[in-house]
């Protein structure tokens, strides 16, 4: 049912819904991809790295509240498969080296001793 105000006018919500329905009848997928691309470009020009980190963090928190471990395993697997299709051995060597360098900057010998022990225990029990 229409949500009308005192002057018997359409509510903003209903007007938006009707406009969206009409637009979807007149445009295809490419139209929405194009305007989405333009919006993304404009947003990137108007916002910095911190903006994206903040919205990513908020989205991540919300997602973690509504999804379980299996969800993350599934999307991780899909992402890994897609990445392996589009990247070569050198890509993995480069990101592995970067990750190793960053980890060595952030951790001391005790950290490596602990993960080495954990890895050794898993290997013996596996």
TrEMBL record:
<feature type="compositionally biased region" description="Basic and acidic residues">
    <location>
        <begin position="9"/>
        <end position="92"/>
    </location>
</feature>
<dbReference type="InterPro" id="IPR052590">
    <property type="entry name" value="Stress/Virulence-Domain"/>
</dbReference>
<feature type="region of interest" description="Disordered">
    <location>
        <begin position="1"/>
        <end position="126"/>
    </location>
</feature>
<feature type="compositionally biased region" description="Basic and acidic residues">
    <location>
        <begin position="99"/>
        <end position="120"/>
    </location>
</feature>
<dbReference type="InterPro" id="IPR019626">
    <property type="entry name" value="Stress-induced_KGG_rpt"/>
</dbReference>
<protein>
    <submittedName>
        <fullName>Glucose starvation-inducible protein B</fullName>
    </submittedName>
</protein>
<dbReference type="Pfam" id="PF10685">
    <property type="entry name" value="KGG"/>
</dbReference>
């Amino acid at each position: 049912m229409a949500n009308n105000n005192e002057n018997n006018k359409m509510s903003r919500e209903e007007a938006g819904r009707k406009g969206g329905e009409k637009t979807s009848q007149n445009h295809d997928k490419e139209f929405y991809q194009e305007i989405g691309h333009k919006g993304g470009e404009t947003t990137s020009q108007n916002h910095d790295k911190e903006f994206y980190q903040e919205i990513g963090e908020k989205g991540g928190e919300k997602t973690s509240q509504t999804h379980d471990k299996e969800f993350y395993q599934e999307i991780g697997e899909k992402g890994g498969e897609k990445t392996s299709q589009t990247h070569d051995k050198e890509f993995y060597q480069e990101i592995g080296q970067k990750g190793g360098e960053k980890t060595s900057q952030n951790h001391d010998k005790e950290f490596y001793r602990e993960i080495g022990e954990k890895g050794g225990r898993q290997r013996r029990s596996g």
